[in-house]
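seq as requested:
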Amino acid sequence: MTSVAAWDGTPVDAAPIRWSEVAPAVVPRQTLVSVEISDGTSSSSSGVAGLTYYVDPDVTVAHARFDASLSQWLGAAVQGPPRRAAATNPYDPRDEPLRSTVELAVLDALGRATGLPVAAFLGGVRRTQLQAYASLPSFADPGAALSCASDAVRAGFAGVKFHATGSLDADLATIAGASERLGRATHLMWDASCAYDLYSAAQVGNALSRGGFLWFEAPLADDSAEALRSLAHRIQIPLVPDGMAQRAAADWARGVADGTWGALRVDVTRAHGIASAVRLLRLSETLGTPCEIQSFGFPLSQYSNLQLMLATHACRFFEAPFPSLGLDDGLTSPPPLVDGSVLAPVRPGLGHDVDVELLSARCRPIAEVSL
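struct tokens:
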């Protein structure tokens, strides 16, 4: 790697998103990383990857930074503008290194140079398509949630993931309406975004089981280990952790062994390096437990996670924002939906068509280092 640069690629009109009525509204933002690699001759190749993250609406200067750990890893001092994370915002962790994003950009460059997809470097291409589900925002009104879900099914999605309001009555009405309106032909998922206490979560979990939902995601706070274990043994529907949860592989294994988790979850762009994401994937395959990879975010984040999905059969679905929820950044289109599935990109590398010239024309530079 001969150079690395970071760019702020957030659309100026990015609008707040809410994943439950009891969680804070957050604004999606993204930091893009471009790298140039060389084989020591005159030949070189560039690659681009992106990280989606979320900030409070009143944060005006915020982006993922080249932090101290990344500087040490690169062997060069890198200092971007200060980044402020709110303690009350669960979607905006204070520790948000860009190592995975840099590594993904390097693999994108390597893939472009060799004509291979990034999945080939993550263990090999194991599949060429997978079903996609629409990931909806939170709706306070059950009728609005069901209307949006019906639109997603008409748009061709094979499944729909609802996000809770945190109001027990409203959520139970949405669950019952979804089962009746969408039927068993549509895969249904429920993401609570940690909006419940144990009592409410048990009621919701039982309703989801009756309604034929596939999984119950993030029902309680991520650090509520005993409560999560208790909930898992009270209800029939599998529990799935929050997509932004960070745990050691041994902790994930214990959670599966004690019956807490019915699936693992990871976002390769938010992992502590690509190796840790692949390690979790292989653990999932060893345990015979699904690993539902999170791909919600701006298109470049989606392409990165899609490549990880293509390297395993453990992940069952591609998660796509629906509607676009302000995640159209004008740089590239997300992976297209064809007959309810997302197909492997035809372009090499990560599969998008973003290059450094496009970044320099449309994005604000944050930091650049020559190595």
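Residues 79-85 have pLDDT under 50 and may be disordered.
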